[in-house]
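Fill-in record for PTS system, mannose-specific IIA component.
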Amino acid sequence: MNSPKFRVVLVSHGEQSKGMLNTVQMLLGPQKNIAAHSLYPEQSVTNLTEKLQDEIEQHGSENIIFMSELMHGSPFNAVVSLTREHQIFHITGINLAMLMTALMMRDGENVTAQDICDAAIAAAEGSFADVGKILEDSTEEEEED
C-alpha cells in the first residue's frame, strides 16, 4: 500500500486523538501517513506546537490536514499559531465521521486538501442526531399507519 498523498494530524487534549486513531484503524484497517498528538496537563502548549512544527518541516504544510477536537482549546491554539508562518489546512470539532471521510478520500485522483476539509465538515453535519426524537417520530408514524 502506497502512502496517501495527504497526511492527517490529529491534535487533542489527553488521549482523544490517540483514541480516535486507534478506533479509525479498527474500522478502516491500518492507516499510513497519519499521526496523533496529545496535550497533557504536565505539558506546555509550546511543547505541542514544536511537535506540530516538526510535522510541517517533515511533510510540508501543503500536504497536512490538521484536525483538532475543540475550537479555542489549547491544541486548537497550537495549530492556529502555526498560521503565522505557514498556510495550513485545519478542521476543528472532529468526530469519527469526519476522520473516516478524510481518510477514505485523501488519495483520490485530483482531490485537494480543501476538498477533503469540505467533505469532512459535510460528513460531520450529517453524523449527529437526537435518537430519542427519531424514535418518537418513528413511533408516531407507525401509530398513524
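KEY FINDING: DSSP finds six helices and four strands in the chain.
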